Amino acid sequence: MRSIKKIHTAVSSPIADLITYRALPTNSVDHIDPFLFLNHHGYQEYPVNNNGLPFGPHPHRGFETVTFILKGDLTHKDSGGFESVIKAGGVQWMTAGKGLIHAEVSSEEFKKKGGELEILQLWVNLPAKHKMTEPNYVGLQKEDITQLNLNEGKVKLAAVSGNWEGEKGAFDPLNDIQMATVNFAEGGKYSVEIPSDRNIFFYVIKGKVKVNGKEAKMHNLVEFNNDGKKLEIEAHKESILLLGHAVPFNEPIVAQGPFVMNSQEEVQQAFQDYQNGEFGNWNG
């Protein structure tokens, strides 16, 4: 059984009129290698004729963004020519690699009609060997992602990447990053074995669960030690988890603004390259 190192709580960090809780980094935890950053936007309801999400064109280099759309929708457009509107239940996986410019905004329909919105964005590091890889983007709708029915239907697991219960995840990332969202009905139980050399990412999006004997609730990020293998999870009420795991890269992390590299020099180079127009053209 894995032991729990600490249970962290996401901090309120609103962006304009967007309710946002930041689970990583906070004063109590900087990162869980290779997981660097998590913003939990919403839950909130937008009125008709709203401005939508505030994430206009901005650059990235050196890592990946994995965005989970729980409610509402998200329009992605980037300097590599990738464009899509992903609706509730879908996921976007963007590899910034050597650099691109992207925008993440609400669809015209959402801005006109309004509605519920809840979105999570996770930043996953890239190792030195992949930091300058070609940028890539894949957006999948809910129906494109394998949904597993477990515990007599009380647990529904969306296999985003990696291997879950013998089923291959929908995304095939550059590195062995296993990600899933897990929906529990009250009383639902799920147990999984994760090799002890892998770091676990465990965030409670909604509800309240018991994991390995400890209680974790909405906005809690549970940090585990690297000792046992087994996680035993039981939902005290209807709950949603973001669950992932990966072998840590154990490389220096220098993060500044939208760039995550291995050294200060590489970060300075990223700013210079961006200013020199090497991240592509933005035709927003």
Automatic annotation (TrEMBL):
TM region(s), chain numbering: none
Free-text cofactor note: Binds 1 Fe cation per subunit.
Keywords: Iron, Metal-binding
Keyword Amino-acid biosynthesis carried by entry: no
Amino-acid positions noted as binding Fe cation in the UniProt annotation, renumbered to this chain: 58, 60, 102, 104
A molecular function GO annotation: metal ion binding
Required cofactor(s): Fe cation
Domain Pirin N-terminal per the UniProt entry, residue ranges: 21-124
The keyword Iron is annotated on this UniProt entry: yes
The Pirin C-terminal domain, residue ranges: 181-280
InterPro entries, alphabetized: Pirin, Pirin_C_dom, Pirin_N_dom, QDO-related, RmlC-like_jellyroll, RmlC_Cupin_sf
Family that this chain belongs to: Belongs to the pirin family.
The protein, known as: Pirin
Lineage, broadest ranks: Bacteria, Pseudomonadati, Bacteroidota, Flavobacteriia, Flavobacteriales
